[in-house]
């Protein structure tokens, strides 16, 4: 057993996966988190009033095509099959999302077959050679009616700006299915843990070489006490906002308890600009294998991240990317025993499967390349190996 201590800052999936891999390789690991609980943004807890499992920072559906990742999470807890079927509440009525043949046929009052959708949409699309922003890209894919009914208001509320100000890359793929498949994800493996994500992360962290301390804010001056530090917090915060704050959107929730079934589905998107919230989540529908008489409903609002707000979605606008490059260059120039891992430290939106895979690969890379009693100067960002 290596008595030198390794520090992992953050007890989300990134921190837990790294800590486990180090511990299994005989390293002595301390995991700290500033929150009073483990599991980061994937934290789930049963609501005391309804006994429904609530995803406290927003609903999480595990989905991946990666067998290794799927087997990894399943080895720490049971995932039950779950297909996310979203409903869009719009000015013109209630429709199925992601957009599929049912959405189109109901919206345009048509009876199109799969082979007819492409040419039908071609008449609607406002094609541009090189769409330069989100709006141009959406109009090129969908045309005006679908774009304004489903995307304009929702995007404006979610990102707090005109869709014209957002990069075209946000809408990479045509968000339309030419059949009646209304499953939100395309991934081969999809599910939700039977007993919540917290239990899975608790099991990952359950190892004799791992100690956990909660409610502790990381202090950089402690770095010297550790052989190496794995930091999964925000990169701009680590470097004391030296180049300014990176832009994030955050969300907050209004909670209500009702009897019975409130909205008949796990998620309903509200697409109209005048409705102040973006989505309503009814958490008992994320666990259809359970029965509950009461129901807990969370209405999601989106806003800019300021001061002590939790950073949720990286905006990655041009000025953010310029700042990020300055942070990365500066961090790489430091002679410090720190690695930056996970969604906040690398300033990317990452699904859980990506976070787990990257943490597994990074820990393997670290263990293979770290030389005893030297500062680790391999790639120090988990996305750079
Ligand atoms: C609303 C929402 C919905 C999502 N839905 C899905 C989904 O359906 N499916 C999916 O695959 N993914 C989803 N995700 C993504 C998922 O949440 C992330 O992939 C995952 O949480 C990333 O894990 P992480 O460990 O990198 O970061 P986090 O979970 O954020 O963990 C980082 C931890 O570090 C701690 N920390 C930060 N700074 C410090 C500090 N200075 N000192 C001490 N501790 C610190 C934080 O408290 C936090 O607990 C969703 C994300 C959001 C925001």
UniProtKB/TrEMBL annotation:
InterPro entries: UDP-GALP_mutase (IPR004379), UDP-GalPyranose_mutase_C (IPR015899). Its EC number is 5.4.99.9. It is an enzyme of class 5 (isomerase). It comes from the Bacteria. The gene is glf. Residues 149-349 form the UDP-galactopyranose mutase C-terminal domain. The keyword Aminoacyl-tRNA synthetase does not apply. Its cofactor is FAD. This is UDP-galactopyranose mutase. Transmembrane segments: none annotated. Pfam families: GLF, NAD_binding_8. Keywords: FAD, Flavoprotein, Isomerase. GO terms for molecular function: flavin adenine dinucleotide binding; UDP-galactopyranose mutase activity. One of its GO terms (cellular component) is cytosol. It comes from Polaribacter cellanae. Signal peptide: none annotated. Belongs to the UDP-galactopyranose/dTDP-fucopyranose mutase family.
């Amino acid at each position: 057993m290596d008595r030198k201590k390794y520090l992992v800052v953050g007890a989300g999936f990134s921190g837990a996966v790294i800590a486990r891999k180090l511990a299994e390789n005989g390293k002595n690991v301390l995991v700290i988190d500033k929150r009073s609980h483990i599991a980061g943004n994937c934290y789930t807890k049963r609501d005391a009033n309804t006994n429904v499992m609530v995803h406290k920072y927003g609903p999480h559906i595990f989905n991946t095509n990666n067998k290794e990742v799927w087997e990894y999470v399943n080895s720490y807890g049971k995932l039950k099959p779950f297909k996310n079927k979203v409903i869009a509440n719009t000015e013109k009525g209630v429709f199925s999302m992601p957009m599929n043949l049912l959405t189109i046929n109901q919206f345009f009052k048509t009876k199109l077959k799969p082979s007819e959708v492409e040419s039908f949409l071609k008449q609607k699309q406002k094609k541009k050679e090189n769409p330069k922003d989100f709006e141009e890209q959406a109009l090129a894919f969908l045309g005006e009616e679908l774009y304004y009914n489903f995307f304009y208001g929702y995007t404006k509320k979610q990102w707090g700006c005109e869709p014209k100000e957002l990069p075209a890359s946000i809408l990479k793929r045509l968000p339309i299915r030419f059949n009646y498949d209304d499953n939100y994800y395309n991934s081969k493996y999809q599910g939700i843990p039977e007993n919540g994500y917290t239990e899975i992360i608790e099991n990952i962290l359950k190892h004799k070489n791992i100690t956990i301390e909660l409610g502790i804010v990381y202090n950089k001056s402690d770095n010297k006490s550790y052989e190496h530090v794995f930091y999964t917090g925000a990169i701009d915060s680590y470097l004391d906002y030296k180049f300014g704050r990176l832009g994030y959107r955050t969300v907050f929730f209004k909670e209500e308890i009702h009897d019975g079934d409130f909205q008949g589905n796990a998620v309903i998107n509200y697409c109209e600009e005048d409705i102040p919230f973006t989505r309503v989540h009814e958490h008992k529908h994320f666990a259809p294998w359970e029965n509950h008489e009461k129901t807990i409903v969370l209405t999601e609002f989106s806003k800019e991240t300021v001061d002590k707000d939790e950073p949720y979605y990286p905006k990655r606008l041009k000025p953010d990317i310029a700042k990020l490059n300055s942070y990365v260059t500066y961090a790489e120039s430091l002679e410090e025993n720190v690695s930056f891992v996970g969604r906040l430290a690398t300033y990317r939106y990452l699904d859980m499967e990506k976070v787990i895979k990257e943490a597994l690969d990074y820990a393997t890379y670290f263990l293979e390349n770290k030389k005893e009693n030297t500062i680790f100067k391999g790639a120090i960002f988990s996305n750079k190996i």
